[in-house]
Amino acid sequence: MIGYYVHHHGSGHTRRATAVARRLTRPVVGLGSGGRPEGWPGEWVDLASDDVPPVPDSALADVTAGDTLHWVPRHHPGLQARHRQLVDWIGDTSPDLMVVDVSVEVTLQARLCGIPVVVAAMPGERTDRSHIIAYDLAEALLAPWPAGAHPDGGWPSHWWDKVWHVGGISALDPPPVEPSANLDDAPASTTPEARRVLVLWGGGGDDLPAAALEEARRATPGWTWEVRGGGHPTSPDLWADLLAADVVVCHAGQGSVADVALARRPAVVLAQPRPYDEQAATARALGRMGLAATGLGWPAAHEWVGLLSRALTLGGDGWAVWGGDGAARAADLLERLAERVGPTGRERR
After folding, report:
1. CATH for 183-321?
2. Of 2, 29, 219, 273, which is most buried by a Cβ count within 10 Å?
3. 2-169+326-348 has CATH 3.40.50.2000 classification
4. Which pTM was predicted?
5. Would you list the domain boundaries of the chain?
6. Could you report the per-residue pLDDT of 148-181, keeping only the tens digit for each?
7. SS3 for the chain, per residue?
């Protein structure tokens, strides 16, 4: 059995973990504080929240233990209950393998209990003390991007030796493609008046300000704008929305990028402020690889004509390099590793 810890901040970790878990053939048990995700294929352990009750003074609570960890506030009842649940669950079930997406503390807790761990790698600057501990002890680093996307991360060679570059992991499950269909031929719009912008904005960050959206609309005559997420209604059929868009505008979260890559749509990808410059690193990679028009933050109104034009010029063909179907590859690698490092595998060695 494989245990799968899912971080509760935003929706990206949940969507990615669920996509991988649904492709596993071994039993999988999810663990997290955000409630059982829709579509989760196995059991779910609802962990106590480590930030409830709120910590009023982070410095007084020494939440990083002297910059050694990320979140371990002193004497916090939720944190204590959470880790007690984890230890009890590991002791009761003894999983073959733990996947952690993401938490340095859960990674350490599992490995201290003798359970091999695969850590979901994240782009950006990850050479702080906490990440070094987690990445060093991981059996493998699951990277939801293609090889070569982040060559300048400053990672030591022993991390690169155990990276699984599976490509983008999209949570979408598109319908079968007809033999004559070509994703890059959609949509069928041929005139400027018909061109459509689809803005995808996930959770975990700032909502899109209405004034900025209105300025972008006014600055791009001949384009219609539709917004999904970011304080606006989510899409009832995201795959259909993607295929109908001439250009997709999204933030540089791993899940959104993977969705766009799977649909192979021309895109404007905008990095939002995140810890460790995660999204900025992804935007730089996409720009360097010539896959999308990119920017940092929400652009000024006068920049939109150029960004949309750049996206159309680049097109969607290049997204094949990034991929969006990495969930199946990730599941296969996890199955093989669990077979090798699980109790039966150790006995064979």
Report:
1. 3.40.50.2000
2. 2
3. yes
4. 0.91
5. 2-169+326-348, 183-321
6. 999 866 899 999 999 999 999 999 988 765 544 4
7. CEEEEECCCCCHHHHHHHHHHCCCCCCEEEEECCCCCCCCCCEEEECCCCCCCCCCCHHHHCCCCCCCCCCCCCCCHHHHHHHHHHHHHHHHHCCCEEEEECCHHHHHHHHHCCCCEEEECCCCCCCCHHHHHHHHHCCEEEECCCCCCCCCCCCCHHHHCCEEECCCECCCCCCCCCCCCCHHHCCCCCCHHHEEEEEEECCCCCCCCHHHHHHHHHHCCCEEEEEEECCCCCCCCHHHHHHHCCEEEEECCHHHHHHHHHHCCCEEEEECCCHHHHHHHHHHHHHHHCCCEEEECCCCHHHHHHHHHHHHHHCCCCHHHHCCEHHHHHHHHHHHHHHHHCHHHHHHC
